[in-house]
Amino acid sequence: MAEPVVDAVRARVVSALPFDTGDPVLARAAWSRLAEPADAVAGALVAHLGAQAALEWVVDAVGDPARALRGSALEPLGSEVAADRLMAAVARWAPRLDRLDPRRELRVLERFGGTLLVPGDPRWPTRLPQLGPEEPFALWVRGDPDLAGLTEQSVALVGARASSAYGDHVAADLAAGLADRGFTVVSGVAYGIDAAAHRGALAGGAPTVAVLAGGVDRFYPPGNEDLLRRLADGAGAVVSEVPPGSAPFKQRFLARNRVIAAVSCATVVVEAAWRSGALSTARHATRLLRPLGAVPGPVTSGTSTGCHVLLRDGAAVCVTDAAEVIELAGPYAGALEPDRAAHDEQPVAGRAARTAARRRTPAEVEALGERARRVWDALPVRAAAGLDALARTAGLAPGEMLAGLGALEMHGLAAQEGGRWRRVPREGTRPAGRRADAEGGEPDVVHAGAG
């Protein structure tokens, strides 16, 4: 914890945060900025101490780690989170702590007519607590805020971005059939299957829920802005667990898939290649003991390989129409008590193809591991950013950030300019004035400072 950035944070953080930590809603909003989605250490800490006390403990831990760990209040937590994991998490959170003030994000949300939900609100999705320590701290919502009502009878329809005409047709047909029977369709509003499912539900006259990887202030992907605007205007709901201003990083896409699976009675993979991101949602559904279905496709179609693997391995039930999906959902089709149960990356044509190509993480970065990918996601293309801003954006401790930057620099993927860092564009790409994976209008330098 001796890095210069953390020392500076210690100097700036005083006994109280710049907002009322006694307000449980503000405290949970703050945690949604402080920790990355699915941070189980943060979830365990908040579950043990409460959101307000957990925030105050983190402030103390940044200032005096040894004293914070000696506190008797943490003793029962020791069986769940080892001290070294807890302090590593504090190091991740520290770069964001000195600028933490959820009132800013709430003002942005209010301008859009949105609503912040926290656990305990009667509108909170009934099944979400089954995620345990990975349950979101809060949900930022535009559109209909009654997520408990919307998802009481709901099915997640997910699949490939690079979908086929067959897949789009089946997704829309299933969604319309489910809508006609009173079910809400939940998906991730990506190009391809997700968008077809949302549009099919709207055509069937029912609301639909889109779960985003970034903030609800930015409509991503931009090609689906019209669809997202319809939902935000009342035809459903646009939901995110990260606050306004948050960019849709790859890791956040993977994390939001657990939310899609958790709020739904069942998950159906409509079309997916064998490495599709939609299979991540399928795995979350299986982990939650939720029914999982898959739609078969032509045996010659690579876009259905993932579905066929699920069916072959017995992980999913074959479904071909809305009636079979409802049968699959079975007893889960209704309110469920919390204790009841223990992407395809290929570009599509036109504008979607260009967007997907810009967002794709280079193979060289993937080969360096998860930390390098998070550092790469945080790096600007043109305007270089400082270490503290990058650490806040990536949700990494400064030491981890430096290690990741060093690995990228050694492989010619990052460059340092006067103590500030930027990406080195790969062959076949071009620098852009805005980050392609932060669509919604945030310039590189602003993104790095506000993430």
TrEMBL record:
Protein name: DNA protecting protein DprA
Renumbered residue ranges of the record's region Disordered: 423-451
Organism: Krasilnikoviella flava
Residues in Smf/DprA SLOG domain copies: 116-328
Residues in DprA winged helix domain copies: 362-419
Protein's GO biological process: DNA-mediated transformation
One of the Pfam families matching this protein, by short name: WHD_DprA
Domain of life: Bacteria
Family recorded in the similarity comment: Belongs to the DprA/Smf family.
Chain intervals with Basic and acidic residues compositional bias: 424-438
